[in-house]
Amino acid sequence: MPIQKNKILRRIYKWRYKHISQKTFIYILSVAVGLLAGLAAVTLKNITYFIEASLEKGIIFSSNQLYFILPIVGLTLVYLYVKYIHKEKLKHAVSSILFSLSKNKGNIDVKQVYTQLIIAPLTVGFGGSVGLLGPAVATGAAISSNLGRLFHINSKTRSLLIACASAGAISSIFQSPIAAIIFAVEVFSLDLTMISMLPLLLASISGVLTSYFFMGNEVLFNFTITESFEIKDTLFYVLLGVGTAVASIYFTKMYFGIINLFKPLKSPKYRLLVGGLAIGIMLYMIPPLYGEGFVFINNLLIGDHIQALGKTPFDAYINNIWVVIALLFGITIFKAVAMTTTLAAGGAGGIFIPTMVMGSALGNVVAKIINNSGLGFSVSESNFTLIGMAGLIAGVQHAPLTAIFLIAEITGGYALFVPLMITASISYIITKNTVDYTIYTRELAESGDLLTHNKDHAVLTLMELDTVIETNFKIVHPEMTLGEMLHDSVAKSTRNIFPVVDVDHKFLGIILLDDIREFMFDTKLYATTKVETFTHMAPDHIYYGEDSMQTVMQKFQDSGAWNLPVVKDGKYMGFVSKSKLLTAYRRELIRFTK
């Protein structure tokens, strides 16, 4: 059977190379990737909605005490799947894609095609306070990566197809093709050229068509703008931008704070139990934290904050607008906590939609405070709800253009384009100057594995240290005599540098040919002078597995050396020469900019 399969594939390859140009084939693949990513997004949504509907019909869902049970049930199912079927540690969806682009040539394990389709609906359907966008993007990326491998697509084009998959998934979920393209450019640091623009456009279109085909005209936000932007509200939108910036910084810091809080809990069972109980308590106090939160956003947009808040322990005071404001502000605060707790406890999901929920609540709070301050001001609460979402997306994701165009598209027009620009840009500027990296990128940046729009940085990130390590150096030992070194190493070497190691291969230092040149012909010293006499430290060391290529390049610049030793756990591995490093850099730069 495998032989027959290989024969069929070879025939397809031959036919393709003969009849379809590379450019046309990429366009065809981008359409296919967009359709498949869109289908994955639709499947994720439908599975999740099915689980939620089944729970509503099968149990008395209005009883708040059940909120204690459901998250633990969902997280337990995810834990069992990961332990006995997946058998690998779960990684953040978008971060894992970024890592595969920078360090794995866009190769993603085929298991990721179906894993997110199983664990994300279990997490969200049972009350986990996370989103489905990240899992949808991860599933689409895995499909595109393996499709590219199947058709022998090179790593650069495979990376483009992964970006196409993300555009298709986002376009399908939000029915916003322009924002989907911009997301791929901003988050995946893709160069927006005509070569990449057309595949992204095709994937985005095919993704949204998939959504229309399976979901019809059903939209996430059934809202039409009735109040346009007024110049007198400009200052309030500036204030909202500052507020969403503060909330974005809080969101990011809270995420890493809670993740670190769970690290001492080594056993997944303890994390599941602690996290599940914590989520249950939060859902009991603030029911809108359940699941993704689109119903909550829609209720705020139509002005029904009572329905948005649902049944809470504070229903007796709900007629007081300041209690409503306090509860909505509580959602702003605790959405980040509930989301991170879900992920830290072992759940699977994304951060994009929780960001929108938090932003909608904050925007509505700001509008309500303005309208009820007694100062005679009046603003549109629905508009502030929308623009609050844009402010949080711009700040948390460091993606202001995505935020602007997403909100503009899902509202069906550009009537709020100016206030969107004001709030999103202010939020982004303040957050970016306070928090260098996003939740997606911080760990990758710290390890030197992050691709950016900076070409020099991107090229160095794509380079591998293994490709530039040279090992054709003759090793010497400290107890060797000068004569032994000259006979066994210098006479047989084509290099002018000699690493000194002990019996355990621990790196002790180096000897340059210049260090022994004046003693080479003094035969009296051959038997009496040891190698350790000439040994000295290298100008610097390259630490294998620790130093990024950016760090390696910086060490050459700071030390002025032409060769630096590579060590791992104190043991000698080889040398990197500046000339080979620069040659490899030029080669990668040419490949990157083709």
From TrEMBL:
Superkingdom, natural source = Bacteria
In its UniProt entry, the species of origin is given as Maribacter arcticus
One Pfam match: Voltage_CLC
Domain CBS: residue ranges: 469-528, 534-592
**By what name is this protein known?**
Chloride channel protein, CIC family
The record's section on InterPro entries has: CBS_dom, CBS_dom_sf, Cl-channel_core, ClC, ClC-type_chloride_channel
Keyword set for this entry? CBS domain, Chloride, Chloride channel, Ion channel, Ion transport, Membrane, Transmembrane, Transmembrane helix, Transport
Give the subcellular location.
Membrane
Q: Which GO terms describe its molecular function?
A: chloride channel activity
Annotated Gene Ontology cellular components are: chloride channel complex
Please give the Gene3D superfamilies that the UniProt record associates with this protein.
Answer: CBS-domain, Clc chloride channel
Has keyword Membrane? yes
Bilayer topology annotation: Multi-pass membrane protein
Which PROSITE patterns does the entry mention? CBS
Please tell me whether the keyword Zinc is annotated for this protein. no
> Which ranges does the record mark as transmembrane?
24-44, 64-82, 160-185, 197-215, 235-258, 270-290, 317-337, 344-366, 414-431
